Amino acid sequence: MTLAPLPATFAETRDALHRLAVYVISPAQRLVNGEIVMRATPGGFSTFPFGGRTIGVDGAELVVDGARHPIGSLRDAARLAGIEPDVGQAEQFDVPPHGDLDAPLPVDAPAARALGEWYAFATDVLDAVRADAGPAEDATIVRIWPEHFDAAVDAGEEAAGRRGTYGASPGDGHHPEPYLYASPWAGRIDPFFDDPGFRGAARTHSQLAASADPRAAAIAFLRDARERVGRRR
After folding, report:
1. Triad 177, 45, 65: Cα angle to 5°
2. Which of 10, 26, 85, 134 is the most exposed place for a label (fewest CB within 10 A)?
3. Span between the terminal Cα atoms of the chain, in Å
4. Which one, of 128, 135, 176, lies nearest residue 153 by Cα?
């Protein structure tokens, strides 16, 4: 599995889709079953099934219960989802401002597909590492969280101080490009966890893409992090 170069429009599109996820897609699910998490799907991301429905993104299209629509404004997307934009989510940590609810979201199709490819890559490598976890480690499924817009799993024995979060961000205030990360719940337990922006370790999209086998490099990084967390006494 390779990692293609990111389009120049990636950051703008990522931020627009982050807003769509926070203010429309995730709330549509939460209003039915209280859940906010999403998952990687072909071409992008979507809710898990809820009440017989799914809402998500495939490239530059909003997919509502199987029907495809060009992505317009947040208000247009909310109308198609059957809700009002949930602007109250702006109070959550790490959430982008909702901005003009009637302005078209600047979503470029190639950049949106690149985001989908990153989530697919992330889910694949996180599932590979998650499979290493024993029953006592209580590993979660891979979930995309609307606030940080990252795909992540939690694993490890919490009572022993060996639990951590392992994930993949599409880029944020710490790193302008997508990156994998490992963050021990106990903090900087080892010099390996030396990222200056948060209490963990990271490998960027460009670092992974430069390796001979990005998938193998990603899995090796996450397994190294998990081993270090698991050794903690």
Report:
1. 155
2. 134
3. 36
4. 128
